[in-house]
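Hi Y.,

Following your request, here is the sequence exactly as I used it, all 205 residues.
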Amino acid sequence: MSYSPGGPGVASGGPAEPAFSQAGLQDVVNSWIAAITKPSVQTFAAEVPRTSQNRLIMSVGLATVIAAVLGLISGLLSGSATGFIGSLIGTPIGFFVGQGIIYLIAKMVGGNGSYMEQSWVMSTFWAPILVLTNIPIIGGIIGLVAWIYSLYLTYLALQPTHRMNSSQALTVVGILVAIVVVLGLCAFFTVGLAFLGLAAAGGTR
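Below is the corresponding structure, written out as C-alpha cells. Let me know if you'd prefer a different format.
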C-alpha cells in the first residue's frame, strides 16, 4: 500500500529521548523486529514520530558492534581475523554517507522528510540486516537476498518518511540501483584493465 502525500501528515517531535539503557536498547530492537517481520508503509509510518538522536545512535551503534564481533568470529574461523577496528569506524560512516545519498535523491524527486527521520527509519531494517549478513558461515549466503529485501524495505520506508507516493519512492530506489550497477561496472572494468596491464607487462619480460 502506498502512502498518500495528501493525507494526514506525520507528526514530528514524538516521545522524549529514550535513555541509553537496557530498556532503550530493547525499544530499538523491537523496532528492528517490526521492520523485518511486519514490513509495510504503516509500520514505517509509526516509526517516523519516534525519531530521536538517541534511538538512532543506539540502533547504528548496537548493530555496528554486533556485526564487528561476528566479523571477528568469522575471521578467527577462517584464520584471518583482521579489520575489527576498521569495521567499528567504517560501518557507521558508510551508513550515514549512504543515507546522505538517499536523502539527496529523495529531495530531487520531491521528498520533504528530514535527514534524521530518514536515518532513524532506515536504520530499523539496515541494522538487523547488517547483523544477519555478518553471521559466520551463513551470512554470505543470505547477502544477495538481504540486499534485494532491503531495496523493497527502502521503497516502503521512503513513502511515510518523505511523504512520497509509491511512484516517487520507486523512482528513488531505481536511481539507487542504477548507481550501484554503474559503480559495479566501473570497478569491474578497472580491475579488468589492471589485470590486462599486468599480464601485458609480464609478457614483455
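The chain has one domain: 22-203.

Thanks again,
Q.
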